[in-house]
Design brief:
35% helix, 11 helices, TIM Barrel, 2 domains, eight-stranded parallel β-barrel, elongated, Alpha-Beta Plaits, 337 residues, alpha/beta, 14 strands, homotetramer, four-stranded antiparallel beta sheet
Chain lengths: 337, 337, 337, 337
C-alpha cells in the first residue's frame, strides 16, 4: 500500500503517519519528491489498514500495490530510478558500459585491461575476485588479493569497480573495495545474502537467476530493498532453454517487461548469455535498442589464454570497434555512452 | 561438398561435371556468380567422391560442408541471399516490414488495414486465410474467400501478400494468391509440406518451430531448398521456455547465430513472440539492432475486437509511431525502411 | 455442454433433442451407456443454449464442460475409454506393449523382430514405413514397401500393427495396412492431418509434441474426436528442456495429469524420450507405476547397425529381460501384460 | 585419478603413496574396502602424475576418472554408497520415507504430524525451521524455535530429523538439531554453503536446482565431498520447463541417469515437484519404480490451513493409503519400506 501525503502536510502529521505504520507492525519506506512525499507501507496484508490511514490528517490518498513486489514496483515509484555513484548515473540518459575480465588474474593484467576499456568508453571495471564455479577444481578467484588489484586499477584509471560477493561473510570486505557489489545468478535466491546486501551502503548489481521468472527476479530485488538499500541495478544475463547454439538464451524481452513493472535500472550481460564473442556486438546493440540502461561486457587482452570464459571475451580491438558502433547507435535513441 | 569451377571453365567441362554428379547419384545445385560458378553436390557421403571431381578439368577446388544443412549453409553461399519479389528485396539493404491482421476477417477490414499499413511504410500485407488454431472450436479462417480479399487489397494498394498454407493440398491455391507463402511454426517439421513448398515458384516464409533448435530450423529450410526453391526467408517468432511474462521467449540470439551459419534472410515476429502489444515496439527495435532483415507485425484497427490475437496487435496509430521510430533507427544501421 | 438423458427417455424424445442440437448449429456426439445416454453438444458457446435443452422432455440434466477440450474431457466421459482392436483392449486392465524397430528396414529383419517381440509378450508391432527425419539427407523409410513387410509380419505372428502417417494424402494407404495409425510428435499440431485422421475408421496413436503443453495435447486429440473418431490413444514421448543427459525429458507427470483431465488411454515411449537404452527399463517401470496403459519400445536385433535410433533400441535379450520384470511388476498394480 | 593399492600393500607403502600425493599438491581421498584400499587423487590435472604413482611399490593400477566430478562418480566408488544414521540406511535395501510439513508451524502441530507419519511407516521427519521464500513478505519459518520443536518430536517418536540450512552461519546450529541437513534447490550452487556443509559431520540432503543439469548437480555434491563429508543424499525435486500443469516437471529420468554416473543415494520429492497432491501418489510409485532410494513427502493435518504449500500436502489419511500401496509395491522391487 502506498500513502501519498498532501502537498501541505506538516512534519508533525507526517510523523504521526509514520508512527502509526510502525505501531501496526508495518515498515514505512519514505520517498520524498520535490512536490510530495509518498510512503510505502510494507508488510503482509497492509492494505487491510487502508481506512485507518485514509482518516489521518495530511494523507491525500492511498494506492494499493497489485504486484507481489512492492518497493520494486512502478506503482511505488512511477519514474525511473537512477543509481548514482560518483559522477556516474545508472538509469538516466547515459548508457553505462561496464567491462573487464571474467576473473581478476593478476595486477599487470587488470591494469592493462582497465586502461584499454576506459579508453574505449567504459565507465565501470568488472572483474571477479571471488568466482562461483561449477567445479570445485576450477580456478576460484584471487580473493582479497584480487580486490587489491581492482583498487589499484581504480586509482590509476578512475573507473568505478563492480565485483561479486558470494556469501554474507564476504559482503563487508567486497563493499570496502567495490563501488557496486554484484550478486551472481546462482545466488539470486540466496535470500540471506540478499538481505545482508540490503544493509550495506553500496549499490547492488543483481543478476537474474538462469531459471528465474521476471517476477521472481523482482521479488529478489525486493529482499534487498526491504532492508533499506534502494540502489539495485538489475541485470539480464540469459536463461536456460533447450537451445544449445548459445550458452544461455539472452532474454531481451525482460528489458521492456521489467521497465513496465519496475522503476529499477536494467543492464544486460551479452557475454555470459551467449557464451560466444561472435554474438556479443549484435546482442549489445539489441540490448540498447530494447531499452537497456547499460551493458556488462567481458574483455580480455588474450581471450584464448583467459583463466575462464575465454570464448566469450572480446579482445581490445573488438571491444573498441563495438563501442564506436554503440556510441553512434545510442544517439539514435537520444541517449549517450 | 561444393565444387568451385575455374573462371575459365568451358561450358562443355561444366556439363561433364554436372553429368558426373548425377551419375554418382547426387544432386547438383548450381549457383552462377559473376566471376565463377559453384556447384553444390548434395547427397549422403558426397564428400567420398571428392577425388573424382578434383581430377576433372575445369574444377578449381573442392570444399566440404561441415554443417548437416548444405544449401542453407554459408559455406555454400558466402554472401547474403536476397529474395526478390517485384520491387522488394528481402535480405538486402532495405528492411522490409510486413504488417496486417492475424486473420483476414472481411473485405472492408483488410482493405482498411492494407491502406493504413502501407501509409506507414509496410511493403507486405500479412493476414491468415487458413489459420492453425489450438482449438478446433476457434475461428479457422475464411479460406479461399480470405485469399480473394487479400488479392483485392493487393490490387488497391500494391502491397505484396504473405499468407499461410497449412498442408500440401493448399499450396497450389495459396501460391496463386500469395507473393510469399508462409509455413507456420507448428508445421516447421511437417516434412511433406516443406518438400512440396520446395516445388512451388514462390518465396517461402518459414517460421521457427516453438521448440526447434536453430540447427533444426536450418534443416527444415534445407528440405525446401533441396527441391529447388532457394527463396526461403527465415522467421524467428519466439520459443517455449519457463517464462510466462511473455507468451513465448523471442530469441533474438537466433538472428546473429543464423546470419553466421546461413546466407538466408532472417525476419522477426515480435507480435506472436511476446503476445503483448506493450512489448512490440521495443522488441522490433531490438530485432533490427540484432541484424534482422525485416519484421512481421500484427496490426488491427480495433485490437479488442479482433477474432484472434487481439492483445498483441498494434492499432494504426501505434503502428505508425513505431514505424517512424524504426525508420530513424534503420539509418543508424545504414539500412532503410 | 453435456446433456444427460433420462433413463426412460423415448427414442422420439431423443430424436428431438438431437434435431434441436443440429438446428442450433451445434454437433451432437452421442455416447450410449448401459443405463443412460449422454450427448455432447459441441460448438462455440453451446452453453448459452442450456435453458432450451433443460426445458425439453427426456432431458435429465445439463453439465457444462469447463475445459477447452470437450470430447476428450473426463466430464464428457467419466469412465476410462478403452480402445479395442481385435482381441486387444488398450486402456483396460491389460497393459499393452508395442515394440519393434524405429524404421522397417527389410522383410527378413521385420519378421525376425516381430517373432522375437511377440515371444516376449508384445501385442503390437511398431515400425515406421514413412519416417519424419530432421535431415532431408537421412533415410526416409521404405514407404509402401515397408507397409507390405509389416502386413507380412502380421500374417506370420498375429501382432497388430502401428505405423505412422505423415500427411493427409498418406492416411488412406496407411490405414489400409495399420491397425493403429500413428501421428508423430512433429505433426501434433498439423491440424489438417488431425482432422483427416478423425475421418478414418482406425484407432489413432497421437504422440505429444515435444513442446506441447498437456492442454494443447488434449486439444489436438479433440481435433480427431470432433470428426467422429473417438479411438484416440495418447502417447507421452518426452519434452524439450534444458537437460541434455537424456535426448528429451520424459514427462511422466503427464500420465496422472492426463488421467485426471481425460478418459483417453495413455501410453509412454521411453525409447525416443531418453534416447538411451540404458534408461529404457527404469523408465518403463516408472511409466507403469505412474499409471500408463501401455508402452511403445524400440527393439532391434543389432542396435549398432540400425538405420536410425540405434542407441535407444534394446536388443532381443534386453527386451525379454525387461518384459519379464514388467510382467511381475504389473501384477503389483493389479494389471497384467 | 584413482590409485588402487595391491591387496598385500604394507602400511608403510600406503603411507608413502599418500605422502607423495600431498607433496604433489593433490588431495588424497581414501576408501578402504574389505579386500583393498583405493585412493582418489583429487586436484587439477592429477592424471599427469600417473606415471609417478604407477612406479611406486604397493600400487596395483591407476584409473583415470573421465567425469568432471570425481568423488561422486561411480568410477571412484563402483558400489552404491549407503548413508547411515542411527538404524536407518539410505541407499541400501530399505526405501526410506521422509515426511512432514513444509514448515514447522508449532509444537502441537509438529508432534501430531510426527506421530501420524511414523505410524504410517516414515523413518524421517521433515519440516523447515528456516524457509527460503520467493517473497520477503511470506512466512520465513520459526527459526531456532522450530528446531526445538523438531527435537521434541524426535524425542517423542524416535524419527530422525531432516531440516534446511540456508547459509553457512546457520549450519552449525542446524547440524546440532538435525540428523540430515538439507540444502535447498535455490542454494544448489551456493558454493560457500556447500563447502561449509562439507565440513560438518552430518549427512547432507542436496536438492537439485530447478535449472541444474544432472552434471551440475553432481558437481555440487563434489563441493561437499571434497571437504571430507561423503554422506551426501541427492534429491530430484523437479525442473523448470514450459509445462504449467504441474508446478515443476519432476524429472524421473534423473534417477537412472544419476545411478549410472554416481554411487550416491537418490531420493525424490514429488510434493514440491508437482505442487498438487492429486499427483503425489502416482509420482511416488513411479519414483520407486525408477529406482529411487527414498521419498520426501509433504504431509499436513489440514492442508487447506497450512502456512505454505498446502495444495501439495497430503492429509494423514491420504498419506497412510499411499504408504500402504508403496509398501506393497516395494516388495515387487525386492526392497522394503
Amino acid at each position: 500500500m502506498i500513502i501519498t501525503l498532501d502537498r501541505k502536510v506538516s512534519s508533525k502529521q507526517k510523523e504521526l503517519v509514520i508512527r502509526k505504520i510502525r505501531e501496526l507492525g508495518f515498515q514505512p519506506h519514505i520517498s520524498s519528491g520535490i512536490q510530495r512525499t509518498v510512503i510505502g507501507v510494507i508488510g503482509e496484508n497492509a492494505i487491510l489498514a487502508r481506512e485507518i490511514f485514509e482518516a489521518m490528517d495530511g494523507v491525500e490518498f492511498i494506492t494499493p500495490i497489485s504486484q507481489p513486489f512492492k518497493l520494486a514496483s512502478r506503482d511505488f515509484h512511477p519514474k525511473n530510478s537512477v543509481v548514482a555513484l560518483e559522477d556516474i548515473r545508472i538509469g538516466g540518459k547515459e548508457i553505462v558500459i561496464m567491462a573487464g575480465p571474467c576473473a581478476v588474474e593478476g595486477e599487470k593484467e587488470i591494469l592493462e585491461i582497465a586502461e584499454a576499456v576506459k579508453k574505449s568508453g567504459a565507465r565501470v571495471l568488472r572483474g571477479g575476485a571471488f568466482k562461483p564455479r561449477s567445479s570445485p577444481y576450477s580456478f576460484q578467484g584471487l580473493g582479497r588479493q584480487g580486490l587489491e588489484y581492482l583498487r589499484e586499477a581504480k586509482k590509476k584509471t578512475g573507473l568505478a569497480i563492480v565485483t561479486e560477493a558470494m556469501e554474507p561473510a564476504q559482503l563487508e570486505l567486497v563493499a570496502e573495495y567495490a563501488d557496486i557489489v554484484q550478486i551472481g545468478a546462482r545466488n539470486m535466491q540466496n535470500f540471506n545474502l540478499l538481505q545482508e546486501a540490503g544493509k550495506i551502503r553500496k549499490p547492488v548489481l543483481l543478476k537474474r537467476g538462469m531459471s528465474a521468472t521476471i517476477k521472481e527476479f523482482l521479488m529478489a530485488s525486493e529482499y534487498i530493498m526491504k532492508e533499506g538499500n534502494y540502489d539495485v541495478i538489475l541485470c539480464e544475463r540469459g536463461i536456460r532453454t533447450f537451445e544449445t547454439a548459445t550458452r544461455f538464451t539472452l532474454d531481451l524481452n525482460a528489458v521492456p517487461v521489467i521497465k513496465r513493472l519496475s522503476h529499477l535500472p536494467v543492464i544486460v550481460d551479452p557475454s555470459h548469455a551467449t557464451g560466444d564473442r561472435n554474438y556479443v556486438a549484435a546482442m549489445s546493440r539489441a540490448a540498447l535498442a530494447a531499452g537497456a540502461d547499460g551493458l556488462i561486457i567481458e574483455v580480455h587482452p588474450h581471450p584464448d589464454k583467459a583463466f575462464s570464459d575465454g570464448p566469450q571475451s572480446l579482445n581490445f580491438r573488438q571491444f573498441q570497434e563495438m563501442m564506436k558502433e554503440l556510441k553512434h547507435l545510442s544517439s539514435a535513441f537520444k541517449r549517450k555512452i
